[in-house]
Amino acid sequence: MSSLAKVGRNDPCPCGSGAKYKKCCLHKDEANNVIRLGTQSLFAEENEVEEYEEVIPQSYEERVEFIELQVWASEQYRTIALQLNDHLRERYEPLEIITIITLWMTYSRDYSPIINKPDVIFATMEYVMGILTGNSSITQTSVAKQYSVSSASVSNRFKDMTPSLDQLLNLMLLDEEDEEDDDDFENVHHFARNELESQMRHFRPDFAKASPAQKLIDQANQTTSAKMKKKLAEQALALDPLHPDAYNLIAEELEDIDEAAKLYKRGIDAGRKQLGTTFFTENKGYFWGLLETRPFMRAMHGYGEICLFYLHQYKEGVHIFEEMLDLCPNDNMGIRYLLVTGYILLKQYPKALALINHYDESCANFNYNRLLISYLQHGVNPSMKPLFKQAIAQNPHVVPFILGSKKMPKHPPATIGSGDETEAIDYIMYHNPLYTASPKLVKWMSRS
Question: Is the pTM higher than 0.85?
Answer without folding.
Answer: no
